[in-house]
Amino acid sequence: MPQWDQLWIDVNIATMNADNEQPYGAIHQAAIAVKDGKIAWVGKQDELPEFDALDTPIYKGHGKWITPSLIDAHTHLVFAGSRANEFEQRLNGVSYEEIARQGGGIISTVNATRQASEAELFELGRKRLNALAKEGVTTVEIKSGYGLDLDTETKMLKVARELGKHHHVDVQTTFLGAHAIPPEYKNKENGADEYVDYIINDMLPQVAKQELADAVDVFCESIAFNLEQTEKVLTAAKQHGLKIKLHSEQLTNQGGSELAAKLGALSVDHIEYLDESGVKAIAESGTCATVLPGAFYFLRETQLPPIELLRKHNVPMVVASDFNPGSSPLCSTLLMLNMACTLFKLTPEEALKGTTTNAAKALGIDDKVGSIEVGKQADFCLWDIQSPAELSYSYGVNPCLQVVKAGQLISM
Ligand code: NIG
Ligand code: FE
């Protein structure tokens, strides 16, 4: 007779398991059992094997829905300061690029983050992580990139790692030293190239040695790093055994996604300006396409990401918040589900896939999390909804009833 730690009955389950051909991989009138932090059994309730009913705590779901808990695969949630003043500037007609060129934008957050202590950054990050956690997020990727010097970049990554240790949410960290050209290098003749050398020779080896990052990212853009500089950083990252990702085709098409595909990146992110040859390249390399509707919305972008082409070439689509102070100060993964559907016309099923299975793929952790399958970590949520589409349909009244992380019921 199986021994389980907990059992949920009278639920409907959107497993998001690709092997289940039902929409959302759904199992109706289902049950799910957990043992040692993992999913031990999932299926139709009337097919439950005999189990030790006296010794197993049983939760009744009253016909509500369980899904894998959410994964936000692209955030910049460790930072100090606010950019509300730039928001006002933009509303008075100054563009995001113009603000960046004038030394504002990312650099203004760099100045605030350099001055902040680890404890201050931790406290700011903790509140933001709590906001995501309340909406059923149990895995978050956090990027550095508001330090642009060794001390501050490592400070940010340490804070991100500490957040993961002290919070039930798992944190995947990404080193984004190549986010912008720091003020110290800005006015030098070959400043960007020199800074790239500094990243490769000084920062990356430290980040790798101290095991501060799971992945490395670069902002490949006209206002940031060109293709050649991007390739150098990503190649060096791979030599340190780190996974790679890319901010690409956000404002212009620099060919970043094709490069990312060639180097075997896990994901390319933003991609409003991605064209069909780029889509084909990432389709072939198995690179995920992360759409960030918060940044699209907040920057009042009009160029839509090539969703039809991504579908045509079967590219796994990921939906993330990109939570950051400049382009997406929107700390809500659930809001992104709604925006991905309304702004980009993803189906609610595609949007949910983008914050579960495909999000796990974009972080290289899909063997462990992202779907409800026997043997995977028991990370799931019980929602007060009548159908999984409601997660994308409505926003503002948080429907999250229960969060289970590695088999533990989390109280928040
Ligand atoms: O993902 N595109 C580059 N980086 C961030 C924005 C950073 C900022 O404006 O502070 C993004 O949108
Ligand atoms: Fe970003």
Q: What is the number of beta strands? A: 16
Overall form: globular
Distance between the termini: 34 Å
The CATH class of the largest domain, by name, is Alpha Beta
Count of discrete domains: 2
What small-molecule ligands were found?
A: N-(iminomethyl)-L-glutamic acid, fe (iii) ion
Computed CA radius of gyration, to the nearest angstrom: 21 Å
Q: Helix segment count?
A: 16
- The computed structural class is alpha/beta
Mean pLDDT: 97
Helicity level, as a percent range? 25-40%
Give a quick account of the main beta sheet: strands, pairing sense, barrel closure. Answer: 8 strands, mixed
CATH architecture of the largest domain: Alpha-Beta Barrel
Low-confidence stretches: none
Describe the structure.
With 412 residues, the protein is an alpha/beta fold. It has two domains: 6-68 and 372-410, Roll (Urease, subunit C, domain 1), CATH 2.30.40; 70-362, Alpha-Beta Barrel (TIM Barrel). Helices cover 37% and strands 21% of the residues. The mean pLDDT is 97. Bound molecules: N-(iminomethyl)-L-glutamic acid and fe (iii) ion. Fe (iii) ion (FE) binds at residues 74, 76, 247, 322, 324.
